[in-house]
Design brief:
The complex is a heterotrimer of chains A (136), B (302) and C (124).
Chain A: E1 4-9, H1 13-28, H2 33-54, E2 57-66, E3 69-78, H3 86-89, H4 92-98, H5 104-110, E4 113-119, E5 123-131
Antiparallel strand pairs in A: 1-2, 2-3, 3-5, 4-5
Chain B: H1 16-31, H2 33-47, H3 55-75, H4 79-94, H5 99-121, H6 125-170, E1 174-177, E2 180-186, H7 191-208, E3 212-219, H8 225-240, E4 244-248, H9 252-261, E5 269-271, H10 274-301
Helix pairs in contact in B: 1-3, 1-6, 2-3, 2-5, 4-6, 5-6, 7-8
Chain C: E1 5-8, E2 11-15, H1 22-39, E3 43-47, H2 56-71, E4 75-79, H3 83-92, E5 100-102, H4 105-113
Parallel strand pairs in C: 2-3, 3-4, 4-5
Antiparallel strand pairs in C: 1-2
The chains are: A alpha+beta (136), B alpha/beta (302), C alpha/beta (124).
Chain lengths: 136, 302, 124
């Protein structure tokens, strides 16, 4: 298993690549098929966010351990305009009423952990994690 | 003659004295490998700890265990021990070995090592003290705790697996007629159960090509806004697969509470009891048959 | 990648064959709307069985297809949403409210033949 997989997001065509790589890594980590779809969908949303607002950025996929649990870590990074009001962006109503579907609150619901840091004029970094539920 | 060994990290002695003693211990244990390994096999077999292993397995595993433990002593790293312990616990549990057998086996080895060290250094109390107490003991304790933890984690994993299986059994999806599923839910619904329920229902919709689901929640004792939202999501997901959901068993009190809290139930098709739900479902499913026949009859006339 | 669009009587059937880029999905939308007008189709069945992810953009575009074709006199039924995808969509908050759905191609055609009563969005 690779330590880290970087997927450059230069255009919307890269969104599919990012989520397919994410799905592959998650499968290696032993996530259930339902979780694979949740992870791929969350990656799609944050990658789409990069394309829509920052034009370019990258998605970095890696794995992590927490005790005996294994998990996937998704970092979505861009040097775009940044989000002026993160709290507002994370509100459901905001994204759906704007119809722009920032998709961030949605992505947050799909993952176990979700952290976002953004500076206007500098860019945005999102770190999402999901832990594999114990299986047989 | 004795070097200070207090406060030094395991396997990373800072002064030459301890480091050389570690090397000496490792060399000694390697040299004594066959003797001590044989002793271990004899004692554990006598105590019945290895009852489930074949003679070949005993030979192989005892060698691996021996080498792994000495390796920890030599390198101060426990990754190999951790990996082996996890594997051992999994196999042990699966084959019905008790924790007593697994840990008993390791405690016996510890005992054998210890006695051997005492025999080897009995003429030099200071060296014995440094070797046994400062170098060997911490490693032996660490290995034992690694094995104990591995056993515990494996047991917990099995329990979780069984709980999940029980949960699956507790929410069966039943096909009443072609295209009609019934999902009677009994018991409390938490996030995990809601998800399991939903996934099971969606798979059943696909497998049975169901067009209507009657979801009965009479047996759900506590329906608060969280549970209501779970149910709403289940209904929405079923709809995405082309199945209509009729919710039955929502008592008047619960309905009132939910409306008061502000949960939007307007999109739900609800009926008071399972019987009415099934009748309504039949109407939904049967309706299409009537329409098709009427259309065919009309076409035949023209 | 082209999405084949077949004509079956008054209906159009479009089956997505692989994950689509945004541009390809929008192209599909425009083609469907155009053909509905050209052939005066009364129904469209859009099969998304192959899609392993339906994110916010895909969902919005599908809703767009349903609305636009309706304006041109056709009902669009989305079929083939898989269990994991359906679950993920509800978690994401995308419910395709107001868009008719069916389990598969057969179900979609049956719903279309049924006429304006029943079929698809029966969940009220």
């Amino acid at each position: 298993m690779a330590d880290e997989i970087r997927v450059a997001i230069d255009s919307e065509a890269d969104i599919v690549a990012a989520r397919q790589q994410g799905r592959a890594l998650a499968a290696e980590l032993g996530f259930s098929s339902g979780d694979l779809t949740l992870i791929a969908t969350a990656i799609s949303e944050v990658a789409r966010n990069i394309v829509a607002y920052a034009k370019r950025g990258e998605i970095v996929l890696s794995h992590a351990n927490q005790g005996s649990k294994r998990g996937i870590v998704v970092v979505a990074r861009d040097q775009g305009p940044g989000i002026p009001d993160i709290a507002q962006a994370m509100q459901d109503g905001y994204s759906t009423s704007h119809g722009l579907g920032l998709g961030l609150p949605g992505a947050k619901r799909l993952m176990d952990e979700f952290d976002i840091a953004s500076q206007v004029g500098q860019g945005t970094t999102i770190v999402m994690k999901k832990w594999a539920r114990h299986h047989g | 003659m004795t070097q200070k060994t207090e406060g030094q990290a395991l396997g990373q002695p800072k002064d030459g004295g301890t480091e050389s003693l570690v090397r000496e211990l490792v060399a000694y244990l390697r040299e004594q490998r066959e003797v001590l390994r044989r002793q271990w096999v004899e004692q554990t077999t006598a105590k019945g700890y290895l009852a489930d292993l074949t003679p070949e397995e005993i030979e192989t595993e005892s060698a691996i265990i021996y080498d792994t433990c000495v390796g920890c002593l030599e390198t101060g790293k426990y990754d190999a021990a951790q990996a082996y312990a996890a594997k051992m616990a999994k196999r042990g549990v699966l084959r019905g070995m008790t924790t007593e057998q697994i840990i008993g086996g390791l405690a016996t080895m510890r005992d054998i090592y210890g006695r051997s060290l005492f025999q080897h250094y009995h003429h030099d109390l200071a060296r014995l003290s440094a070797a046994a107490l400062d170098i060997y003991e911490p490693v032996a304790n660490k290995i034992l705790s690694i094995v104990a933890m591995a056993c515990i984690e494996e047991r917990e994993r099995v329990v979780r697996q069984q709980q999940e299986a029980m949960r699956e059994l507790s929410t069966p999806v039943l096909q009443l007629r072609e295209g009609l599923l019934i999902l009677p839910i009994i018991g409390l619904i938490d996030t995990q159960r809601a998800r399991q329920l939903t996934e099971g229902l969606l798979r059943a919709i696909r497998a049975n090509r169901a067009r209507v689901v009657v979801m009965d929640i009479t047996g759900v004792p506590a329906v608060d806004s969280k549970v209501a939202n779970h149910l709403l999501q289940t209904v929405q997901a079923a709809r995405l697969m082309g199945a209509a959901v009729i919710v039955t068993g929502l008592s008047a009190e619960v309905a009132q509470t939910l409306v008061t809290i502000g949960v939007d139930l307007s999109s739900l098709n609800t009926l008071s009891d399972l019987q009415s739900g099934i009748e309504e479902a039949d109407r939904l499913v049967g309706y299409r048959v009537i329409t098709a026949e009427a259309t065919m009859a009309r076409n035949a006339e023209t | 990648m082209e999405v084949p669009i077949l004509k079956q009587g008054d209906y159009l059937i479009a089956t997505i064959q692989a994950a689509l880029s945004d541009a390809a999905l929008l192209k599909l939308r425009d083609e469907l709307v155009e053909r509905v007008g050209r052939f005066r189709a009364r129904g469209v069945v859009l099969d998304v069985t192959v899609l392993d992810v339906m994110d916010s953009f895909t969902t919005r575009t599908l809703r767009g297809i349903a609305h636009m074709t309706k304006l041109r006199g056709a009902r669009t039924i989305i079929v083939g949403i898989q269990p994991e995808v359906a679950f993920a969509m509800t978690q994401l908050g995308m419910t395709l409210e107001g868009v008719e759905t069916a389990l598969d191609l057969d179900g979609g055609l049956a719903a279309l033949r049924q006429g304006t009563k029943g079929g698809g969005d029966r969940g009220r």
